[in-house]
Write a structure and sequence with these properties.
The protein is α+β, with helices and mostly antiparallel strands. About 55% of the residues lie in helices and about 15% in strands. Pathway: Purine metabolism; ppGpp biosynthesis; ppGpp from GTP: step 1/2.
Length: about 250
Amino acid sequence: MKLPVKLYEDVDSWKTVNFLYSSALKEVNTKLEILNDEFQHVHQYNPIEHIKSRLKTPESIVKKLRKSGYEISIENMVTHVNDIAGIRVICSFVSDIYTIADMIGKQNDIKVLSVKDYIQNPKGNGYRSFHMLVSIPIFLSDSMVDTKVEIQIRTIAMDFWASLEHKIYYKFEGKAPEYIRTDLKECSKIVSMLDAKMLSLNEAIKKLPVDGAENGFEQKSAAAVNSYKAAGDTYEEPADGCREDVESYMGFE
């Protein structure tokens, strides 16, 4: 991000930079919401469950600059700290992640600076997510400033794991006991298997015929159960009284 020199000389330079990053978050948030709405309109499906956004605190920025050996300055901040503005997109399925990443990359005014696929190549601790560093133009009254935003795209299960890992990291200041690190990595593998199984189940459900026959629920539920059993899982019949709720939810009223 290149800021006009006059902004660096301004005593309110931090406020100006903060304003730019805040504006960038609004721009990207709006784009994602529109893309999600369009996907619903065209495909009757929302790939995005929800969106979280945040601005890195000044304390966190300073800590990151010092850790990387950079002098504390506005210029170093906008040059070397790429996640000052961060957006996290939460999806139901792994396939949604790549759909969203592709839609973002096709936006004419968004420039993709880098991509890190931690789903195909998880971090050593088991972390999985898809990261995109992008820049988006912010138009001011007398200038335009390209501003960086880090976008993290992950499933609900990945987000749950990452949230727990984050808490453990800070609780032990990055030095968690070996057995905890080992268990956490094993949990990451379980999360990956869960995501794969849920995606497979969702694909099986989408292939089921949709009709208005009275036995529609029986046909669809039986096929889903058979698919589930074929995957090697145990299946328990729903408790009495659940059937009506499920039928209503699936549109068989």
